[in-house]
Amino acid sequence: MKLTAETSLKGIAIAMGAIAALMAATELQRALDEEAAPAISISDDPLRQTLQHCRTLTPEELETDIACQEAWAENRQRFFGMSSDNQGAE
């Protein structure tokens, strides 16, 4: 078989078509997985809602926002499993 410019271009076109089909299949699978996955709800926990809001603040705003400071302190207590008696030992 003689390798000419025409056969080379055909081979490249076939390879590009295969890559495009693979990418389309991957994208379709990802869309189906996202659709099937349950939505994560943070509305059940008021602390999570407050922390979500606090994540949008700048560091300067966090220094003066007492509600966010208290929410982060409560979150640390939950995470480390500390009782309110051990709070001063941080």
Description:
By secondary structure, the protein is an all-alpha fold. The protein folds into two domains: 1-37; 46-85, no CATH class. The chain has four helices and no strands. Helix 2 crosses helix 4 (66-80). The longest helix has 32 residues, at 5-36.
Q: Determine the mean pLDDT.
A: 85
Summarize the amount of helix as a percent range. Answer: 55-70%
Assign the structural class, choosing from mainly alpha, mainly beta, alpha/beta, alpha+beta, or little secondary structure.
mainly alpha
Note the total helix count. 4
Task: Give the number of domains.
Answer: 2
Poorly predicted sequence stretches spanning 5 or more consecutive residues: none
- What distance separates the N and C termini? 77 Å
Question: What is the global morphology?
Answer: elongated
How large, in whole angstroms, is the Cα Rg?
27 Å
Q: Strand fraction band? A: under 5%
Largest sheet: none
DSSP strand tally: 0
Write down the secondary-structure element order: HHHH
